[in-house]
């Protein structure tokens, strides 16, 4: 089978899997259903992807590639300060997660897998078919690609003066990324009962962005309480 034909078949299976994982969820989707929906024989489907775990790792790699594109496009913009890049990244990341729920869940799932993988005592909790997937091995190589671009954004901001010079780029970026992931996760609880916690989603996002900017610029300063002199009588 020609290389181009192989790539088309592989892409078709991957696209169908993404649609099914998005609409039905990973657990409820079967390889048989993927093959049937793609109008490809079950045997040929297994030729391209050894099992559902392998297929999901392939989808996860595509998710990381798509997210890397968001990072790369922002970093390539000319005439932007590092602070402006990170501001755009925060908004771009949130937009990405809303438009690509399945990709976002796959990325977060992989981050959870890595927590187990990094500890020899918990690595055996990962399904062996995931560890055997060639796409999982590729993910190990590319997982920090987005981080590398984000670190460059912080370094650029330190150089152009838009970000505090004492900040360490690696620690700073991964802290910002953790904040953005946390924001995305909490939009559900916040949106469920805004009256209870007195936060509205419409004003939380700009408030979140401003706080992030203030942290990076160093404009957040603790104020000493004023001493008030008063007579007891």
Automatic annotation (TrEMBL):
SUPFAM superfamilies: Homeodomain-like (SSF46689), Tetracyclin repressor-like, C-terminal domain (SSF48498). It comes from Fontibacter flavus. Keywords: DNA-binding. It comes from the Bacteria. Residues 30-49 bind DNA. The keyword DNA-binding applies. This is TetR/AcrR family transcriptional regulator. The keyword DNA-binding applies. Residues 7-67 form the HTH tetR-type domain. InterPro entries: Homeodomain-like_sf, HTH-type_Tx_Regulator, HTH_TetR, Tet_transcr_reg_TetR-rel_C_sf.
């Amino acid at each position: 089978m020609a290389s181009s034909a192989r790539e088309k078949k592989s892409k078709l299976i991957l696209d169908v899997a993404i649609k099914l994982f998005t609409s039905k969820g990973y657990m409820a989707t079967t390889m048989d259903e993927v093959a049937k929906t793609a109008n490809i024989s079950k045997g040929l489907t297994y030729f391209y992807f050894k099992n559902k775990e392998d297929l999901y790792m392939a989808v996860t790699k595509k998710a990381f590639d798509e997210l890397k594109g968001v990072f790369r496009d922002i970093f390539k913009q000319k005439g932007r300060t590092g602070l402006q890049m990170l501001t755009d990244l925060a908004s771009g990341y949130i937009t990405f997660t809303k438009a690509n729920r399945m990709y976002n869940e796959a990325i977060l799932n992989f981050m959870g897998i890595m927590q187990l993988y990094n500890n020899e005592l918990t690595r055996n909790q990962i399904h062996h078919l995931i560890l055997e997937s060639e796409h999982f091995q590729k993910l190990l190589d590319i997982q920090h690609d987005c981080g590398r671009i984000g670190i460059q954004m912080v370094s650029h901001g330190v150089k152009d003066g838009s970000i505090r010079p004492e900040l360490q780029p690696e620690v700073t970026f991964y802290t910002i990324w953790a904040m953005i992931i946390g924001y995305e996760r909490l939009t559900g609880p916040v949106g469920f009962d805004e009256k209870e916690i007195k936060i509205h989603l419409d004003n939380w996002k700009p408030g979140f962005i401003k706080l992030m900017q203030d942290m990076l610029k160093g404009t957040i300063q603790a104020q000493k309480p004023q001493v008030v002199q008063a007579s007891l009588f």
